[in-house]
Amino acid sequence: MLSENNRDLQASFFFLFVSLLSFPLIFSFIEGGQMAEVSPFFWPIMAASLMLLFSVVSLSKEMKQGERIELKGLVLSLAASKKQYIFLVLALIYIQSMEFFGFLLSSMVSLPVFLFYFGSRKKGLNLVISVVFVGVVFYCFSVFFKISFPKWNL
Amino acid sequence: MELLDVFYSILTISNILFLCLGVIGGMIGGALPGISPSMTIALLLPMSLYLPTSNAIMLLIGAYQGAMYGGSISAILINTPGTASAAATAFDGYEMARQGKTGKAIGMSLAASCSGGFIASIMLIILAKHLALVSLKFGPAEYFGIMLFALTLIAGVCGDNLLKGLMAATLGLLLATVGMDPVVGTERLTFGLFNLYDGFSMLSVFIGVFALSEILVQLRTPGKDLDTTPEILDYRQDRLTFKEYWSQKWNILISGIIGCFIGILPGLGGSTASFIAYAEAKRRSKTPEKFGTGIIDGVAAAESANNGVCGGALIPMLALGIPGDVVTAILIGAFVAQGIKPGPLLFTQNLKDVYAIYFGLILSIIALFIIGMLALRFIAKIVSIKKSILFPCVFMLCVVGTYSARGNLFDCLMMILFGLFGYFLRRHKFQIAPFIIAYILGPEVELNYRLALRISDMNYLTFIQKPISLFFIVFTVLFVVFSVFKKKVFKQWVSKGTN
Description:
heterodimer; A: 2 domains; B: 2 strands; about 75% helix
């Protein structure tokens, strides 16, 4: 597992990478440039520059303390979050499926899967919760709040 | 005598009924992620058009107060702020719920909301006309000053590692620039995606960073432990005591005044008020390091301020006809439909209606308190549900809530992304608060900075030439210097003590 200080080093590298990536993106994806102080560029460049500054300061501080990137620790740390990544993939599948199968069907099929994934092993209870909870949410939001949910699209 | 006549005419069964209906509707709307106070009011607006004037006033004002409080319920129970203004409540409120003090957290949230709302109502009644004139003196330079001060409060919520907080805050500032430029209307960092023209949905950010990251963190717990019924304190032990409430009296008073003052300034809103009040409470506290660990001070400050905004936002609305936020903009429409025209002449031509609004505000606070107390026991029971059942349902609610804001599945995908980002921050021991504060306040600071420069024809001295702006900038500098000095002195004192 990563030590506390190595986590800080990893995070600093992340912010450094994001800040360096921001500059070409800012110049490619922002329109308008007259009057530098009040142009659309000013604030994003200022934010990215400050992020670069703080991440460089943080990195140099960590490296002065003798910290170095532990690749093995990083891989182990990523592996330790396997459960989270699987959940996020399931979540993405659920959200994408709503576009084709509609909210009701996607939710009633996905919720028992999530319940099982979180440790609820009573299949009967999971099915009842899925139908009732999804039904109530759908009814409340569509009738009282007039929300139009995704519909079957195949 | 006229005042008494209006009071007696307000106290009818139908008015009380519609008031309670408004409060309940507002609480439910505010508690549900995706249903904002403005949406709640907008949904009740058609009903109000068919009601007599007094019933309509009671319904809408009750809903306004209820919705501002309702956001704290989901913030405390499931770390999902129902409204943007409840984000600051989540910092301490959810931690209290995790420590088994759900009843205390919700109790303090209710008490502080009612107290803050009451303070703002009194300020509205006594000072409406005078305070409305103050709001007219605020232009872009003044707004920039106050928002800059609010931004520097980020330093106060960074915890022990200021650098980490600042890195997260700058990323928040950068991500907030995605969308259409607020001054010239060109695209910024939209990558050609139509869904990003309005930037990231605020709910995607909040729900992702708060709720979804929490769900991801909870997944580190083995499934067997998630499937056990959590032990919770007996309701009698978990209740907020009067002593605890009274210990927060100055905190609530100051936060309520901050909320009212922020509410007077059009465009700032409950989230700005609650963050400023939270950071100010932390600054005044004798134990600032405890903020964010689950103390009632944080909940009291945030909630008092965000309900204080209700009364404050009505001041420019009634006195000048200027809406303070989206909710008051809708209320103006509702009042006009009822024959009440907000503006300077309201106090001379429709004084009875003004009194009705005043009484409606105070009665709505009483109704909110009673209904909130009755519902408290049932609300607190939600945490006794097994986590293996609660979290998947919460996740589904998060998806529905995020989708409801703009009717767009893209926002749900962004919520997943921000959830992953929030998880990354938490795994690396970052504070979420600096990122959220910068994301919310950054656009306001930028907009007012640029507008002030454009109006003054690129004269940078405009920020010091205007007294209110100068005051806030000087106050900001002094605050930063004092904070750094205080930390250095404290560190020296600690190292002396250790030696």
